[in-house]
What does this fold into?
Amino acid sequence: MSDLYRVILPEDQIPTHWYNITPDLPTPPAPPLHPGTGEPLVPEDLTALFPMGLIEQEASRERWIEIPETVREIYRLWRPSPLSRARRLEQALGTSARIYYKYEGASPVGSHKANSSVPQAYFNKIAGRTRLTTETGAGQWGAALAFAAEVFGLSCDIWQVRSSFESKPYRSAQMAVFGGKAVASPSETTAVGRALREQFPDTSGSLGMAISEAVEAAAGDPNASYSLGSVLNHVLIHQSIIGQETLKQLELFEEPQIDYVFCCAGGGSNLAGLSFPIIRENLEGRQKAKIVACEPKAAPSLTEGEFRYDFGDTAGMTPKLKMYTLGCEFVPDAVHAGGLRYHGMAPLVSHCYHEGLISAISIGQREAFEAGVLFSRAEGIIPASESNHAIAGALRQIREIPPGESPVIVIGISGSGQLDLPAYVEYLSGTMPNT
Amino acid sequence: MSDLYRVILPEDQIPTHWYNITPDLPTPPAPPLHPGTGEPLVPEDLTALFPMGLIEQEASRERWIEIPETVREIYRLWRPSPLSRARRLEQALGTSARIYYKYEGASPVGSHKANSSVPQAYFNKIAGRTRLTTETGAGQWGAALAFAAEVFGLSCDIWQVRSSFESKPYRSAQMAVFGGKAVASPSETTAVGRALREQFPDTSGSLGMAISEAVEAAAGDPNASYSLGSVLNHVLIHQSIIGQETLKQLELFEEPQIDYVFCCAGGGSNLAGLSFPIIRENLEGRQKAKIVACEPKAAPSLTEGEFRYDFGDTAGMTPKLKMYTLGCEFVPDAVHAGGLRYHGMAPLVSHCYHEGLISAISIGQREAFEAGVLFSRAEGIIPASESNHAIAGALRQIREIPPGESPVIVIGISGSGQLDLPAYVEYLSGTMPNT
It folds into this structure.
C-alpha cells in the first residue's frame, strides 16, 4: 500500500463508458410491467415520459455504454472525484483496518446525483425536449437536475417532499441559484397532489407522492420529460463511473484486494454506482469484496420489505417494478436522511440482493450521526445525512475485526452534509430520535 | 496553453515552505506599536496572546519558513487545492480572455481559512496551550479554528459578529460539529462585550468588537491563546501556499504569463495568500501581473480609508498597526459578505497598496451576487459571498478587453457559498440592497 492520503485521477481518466451490470448477472432480472395491462413493458410505453436515448439504456443488455463527449466535458467540472484513505479516522478508532472513502460531495450540487442529472438532461436536449420535471427528497437530486437543466438550457420543475422542503430551506435555494423551481409535495399544482392533500391533509409527503406529481406534469406536456434520480436502470448505469474510478484509484493506492464496501441505500443509485463495478470483479473472480447496503431504520426496504412487483410511486402511475418494497403507500418517518426515504429499492439492486451478491443492514439515525460526527472531526469532511449510514455500517464492522487482521474497507460518501447542519445540531443536542 | 479543465497537483507538491514577502519588499513596512507606550512592539509584548512560534513568524525577515511536517500532513486532507480554467464561464461571457480560478472552498470548512487555523493550532499545541479564543465574521474563520483545535485536542471559544451569528445559523452549527463554542458578539461573556452592549444596545456587531472580546478572554487565561484569522503577518504567511500552488498549476496549464489577479479583500489574508507569491514574480521581473483587491462598498478600507496607525479592534486592546483604515470604531453595514466587514486592511497588504504593488476597487453586493450567480450556473460552484466580489471585479475587467486581446485572468475563489444560500435567495428575489 502507498503512503498517500488522497488520489485524484487526471481528467483523461474519467471513464469513457458507463458500466451496465445486466449482461453480467448470473440470472436475468424480472422485466418491468405496464401499470395498466400487467404485460412486460416495451420501449414505446415509455416515450411519453423519457427520451429514446434513456429508454434504450433502460433496456440495454450492452455491458459498456459509451459516454457522449459532451457529457464527459461537463463531468470534468468535478470529476474524477477523490478517493481518500481515512488515516485520521483509523487513528481515532485505533483500528488495524485500512479505510478508504470515495467522496462525491465535491460535485456542483454536493452529491453523486449530478453524475446522472447531466446525461439525463443531455439526452433530453438532443431529443428536443425543453422542460424537465422531477421529484426530490432531501433535495440533492432536485438541485442536480436544476444544474444540469441550466447547462443544457432546459427549464426544470421540482416536486420536493414536504418534510424536506420545510426542514432544508437551503436546498430549494440551491435549486433556485441553478434556475430550477421547487414546490413542496404534495402540492396544489397537480391533480394527484390535490387528491393526496385532501386524503392526507397532514402528510409530510413521500418520494412516492412526489414522483406521482412529477410524472403527471410530464405526461401532460409534450415538450416535457420526467427525470428520476434513482431506482431505474439508466440512473444506476450513469452512476457506475463512481466504482470504475474507485477501482483505478485503489490500484494507485497499491491495494489489490477489497474486503468490504459500505454504501447508503435509499433508491439504490449511489450503492449501485460504487458497487456494481466491484460486483463485476467479484463475479469474474478478481475480488471477493462483501458489499453492504446500509439502509435507514425508517425505510428498510431490503431488510424488512417483500420482493415483489410494486409501483414506483404512490398513485400507481409508474410501471410496476420487481423490487424489495415496503408497499408503495408506505410513508417513512421524517428522518433527516431524506434521500433514503423511499418505499422500494432499485430493481437491479433488489435482484443482486436476492441473488446474494449484496448484503444489507439497517441503521438508526442517531447511530448514523454519531458516526458522522466522528468522521467529520477526523477527516474534516461533514458527510450528508445519507452518507452517515454507510459510515455507521463500516464502524459496526470495524468493531468486530479480529486482532491481527487488516481488512480493506471502502465507504461511499455520497454527498456533503453542509446543508444538513441543522440535523447535526439536533444530534449534538441529544434530542434526535433513533428512528 | 493546454486543454485541461482542472489541475490538481499530487500531494507531494504541497509547498514545503511558507513564503514571507517582507524581505522582498522594496521599502520596509512600518512596525506595529505597543497600544500603551506607542513604542515599536518587541516579541515579549505578544507572549500573553500568542505562542512564540507564531510571534517569530510575525516578526520574521526570512523569505521561506519551513512548514512543520505535522501541519503538512493535515493539509493533505484537502490540499493541493484545484486550479480550474473557467471554460464555461468564458463561453457564457463570449470573451477572448482565459479565466482561471483557484478554489479554496473544498477545505474542511469550505474556505481558505483552514490554511492558517491548522498551523496556528499546531504552534499553540506545542507551546502547551490548551484553549484558543477567536473572533469570526461570517463564520469561516471560526469554523476553521474549531476544526484545527479539534485536530490538536484544544478547546475553542469563538465570538461571532452578531449580524452573521443571526443570519448564518449553519455556520455556528459547523463550529459545533467540530467541537467549537460560538456566541454572538458583543456578548455578556466579557467586560468589553458588556460595555459595548450598554453603549450600543442595537449594534449588529463588528469584527473589531469581536476581536476585543476574544483578546480579553485570552489575556485573562494563562492556558489560552488568541488566534486571529487575518490581518497579521503570520496569517498572511500561512496563506502563501495558495499562490505558490497557483504558479505551479499555471505552468501545467502552459500559461507562462499572468495579466490580472482578482481577489476579495477584507482583512487581506486571502488576497495576500494568492497574490504575494505572484508579486514576488513581478518584483523579480518574471511576471507583470496586475493585482486587484476587490473590496465591498460597505467596508472600503483601501479605496476610501486613511493610511495611518490604528487599533486592530474596537476597544483599543491590540497593538497599533500601520494600515489603511476606516477607523477602529467603524461599523460596516450588515452585508452578507461578513468576512469582508473589517475596518482595516492587513499592514502588509496596506504597504503593498501604498507602494503601488496592488490596486483596489470597491464592489456593491448586488453586483457581487450577479457575478456569483453567473459563475454558479457556468462552473457549477456556488462561491462564497466574499468570493463574489473577486468575480465581479474580474467581470468589470473582462468587459473592457479590446478586440483581439486574450489576457490571462486569475480569480481567487476563497470559499464555497453553500452556507450563504439565503443571501443568493435575497439577490434572486430582487430585494438585496447594493451597499
Remarks:
- The mean pLDDT of chain A is 95.
- Chain A touches chain B at residues 4-6, 8, 11, 73, 76-78, 84, 88, 106-110, 114, 147, 150, 169-170, 173-174, 176-179, 373, 376-377, 379-382, 416, 418-419, 421-422, 424-425, 428 (CB under 8 Å).
